[in-house]
Design brief:
The complex is a heterodimer of chains A (112) and B (114). With 112 residues, chain A is an all-beta fold. In chain A, 0% of the residues lie in helices and 52% in strands. Chain A contains no helices and 12 strands. In chain A, strands 2, 5, 6, 10, 11 and 12 form a 6-stranded mixed β-sheet that branches. Chain A starts with a strand and ends with a strand. Chain B is mostly beta strands and 114 residues long. Chain B is 0% helix and 49% strand. Chain B is built from no helices and 11 strands. In chain B, strands 2, 4, 5, 6, 9, 10 and 11 form a 7-stranded mixed β-sheet that branches. A 4-stranded antiparallel β-sheet of chain B has the order 1-3-8-7, with no helix packed on it. The chains are: A mainly beta (112), B mainly beta (114). Chains A and B meet through strand 6, strand 10 and strand 11 of A and strand 4, strand 5 and strand 10 of B.
């Protein structure tokens, strides 16, 4: 079945540590790919997106993501996490239907 | 520039009652979307307006849900009568024509049906 998978429901890291959140999709063609973040009490904020071209995408707040076609993955990374990064992160795809299909989200907890 | 706004932020109602959620998109955005996140599940698409027309309503769960966008500006989503399983967070998003793949989301309305 076509889907977006975020295998990690909850991740805990120490402030200053590196972070990688995983996202895999299962669609025939390469969809548009997105990462959104929802901080407590806030709406969904677009972190970054990939449509085509350079497979390493830079986003806001120091985040980046790498598209790997061979692995059908679009993992989100940050070299050094800040306490304010504690939030829920959602991977999403658009398979050219103008609607987003989301993963189940990964909740990030940051310890000082 | 104001972002997508939604009202109310929270709503608690009893089963069988009616609730109306409102979304104001970013000014100039002709595309408007409704999504819903039921507790513990993924965010799911409900429907998509282009201006005042429903482009895609394939995600609407049943006929208790009615979405409108009169005049192509703000949109309402009415649930009548509400059931327990309707509880969740309802998100609205908007995007520009020709850039519909980049959607901007509102803060959501948290609905609890008791």
């Amino acid at each position: 079945a076509q889907s977006v998978t975020q295998p990690d429901i909850h991740i805990t890291v120490s402030e200053g540590a590196s972070l990688e959140l995983r996202c895999n999709y299962s669609y025939g063609a390469t969809p548009y790919l997105f990462w959104y973040v929802q901080s407590p009490g806030q709406g969904l904020q677009l972190l970054l997106k990939y449509f085509s071209g350079d497979t390493l995408v830079q986003g806001i707040k120091g985040f980046e993501a790498e598209f790997k076609r061979s692995q059908s993955s679009f993992n989100l990374r940050k070299p050094s996490v800040h306490w304010s990064d504690a939030a829920e992160y959602f991977c999403a795809v658009d398979i050219y239907t103008d609607k987003l299909i989301f993963g189940t989200g990964t909740r990030l907890q940051v310890f000082p | 520039e104001a972002g997508v706004t939604q009202f109310p932020s929270h709503s608690v109602i009893e089963k069988g009652q009616t609730v109306t959620l409102r979304c104001d998109p970013i000014s100039g955005h002709d595309n408007l979307y409704w999504y819903r996140r039921v507790m513990g599940k993924e965010i799911k698409f409900l429907l998509h307006f282009v201006k005042e027309s429903k482009q895609d309503e394939s995600g609407m769960p049943n006929n208790r849900f009615l979405a409108e966008r009169t005049g192509g500006t703000y949109s309402t989503l009415k649930v009548q009568p509400a059931e327990l399983e309707d509880s969740g967070v309802y998100f609205c998003a908007s995007s520009q024509l020709g850039q519909q793949e980049t959607q901007y989301f509102g803060p959501g309305t948290r609905l609890l049906v008791l």
